[in-house]
Each structure stands twice: as structure tokens, then as C-alpha cells.
Give the backbone structure.
Amino acid sequence: MASAMTMDEIKALIDAMAASDLAEMEVAKDGWTLRLAREARSAAEATPPAAPAVSAPEKPERQSPAPIPSPAPAAASEVRAPLAGLAYLAPSAEAPPFVTVGQAVEAGALLCTVEAMKTFHEVRSARAGVIAAVLVASGDEVEGGQPLFRFG
């Protein structure tokens, strides 16, 4: 019987793809296939890439869900959750938050993490700006595409 990839192996592949310019990556191991794909987007958009899809070889490959539409003015000023999970605004309960209202951030700044299936996905700013609102509390359940932060 084929064993599945471990969460550490999957996270390492996600991190490797995030650190590269690859638009798509597919890795097979022990009868399992992991396919990571990044949606094409403009630099002005604040929506993080779609979550990776994992499928067994016997099952047909699932298609990525359609992107969640948002009004044009809000899209440039909001940072949305990349997938459903638990949002964490700080690295631990005792630590200060990654960002606060009124704080200026650079493009690529870590804003929060979203935990899904015991894997933490970093949510980073796609642009420089000032945080005008934090729209969730640490530990809140969020849906994919839900606004997390608003720039002023």
C-alpha cells in the first residue's frame, strides 16, 4: 500500500514554490501526486494564491474553484484569506501581532497566518500601504476569499 506524503514534505514543497517564480509544480511520490498552481494575477491585487490541490492517482484531478469576485475598489485595498481555516494575527498568544492598525507595511510584509489541516499559510501584503482595519480576530474561522485587512 502506498503511503501519502507527510505534511512536512507538502509544506516544504509549498515553501519552495513560494520562494520561486514557478507558476505550477507537480510532484509524485509513492503513488500520490501533489499539484501546486499559482493563479496569474497583477501586482496590484491583494488576493493571495489559491490553495494547493492534492489528489490520489486513482481519482480524476480536481479543477481549481473559480476565484471569488470582488468589487474593483475593495480588491486593491483589501487582503483576503487564501483559503478557509483559522486566522492567527500573532506568532503565539503571548507575542505582539504581526501588524496593527495605523502601521505602515511594505509589499511582502507578513500580516497573519491561516492554519488549515495543521499547516500554516502565510498571508503577506501584495503592496505597500498603511493598515486601516483588521477585520478578524486571532483564532477566528475564516473562509477563502474573506477580507482580513483593509489598507487606508
About this structure: Residues 42-47, 68-74 have pLDDT under 50 and may be disordered. Helices lie at 7-18, 72-77. The longest strand covers residues 110-116. Residues 113 and 122 are 4 Å apart (CA to CA).
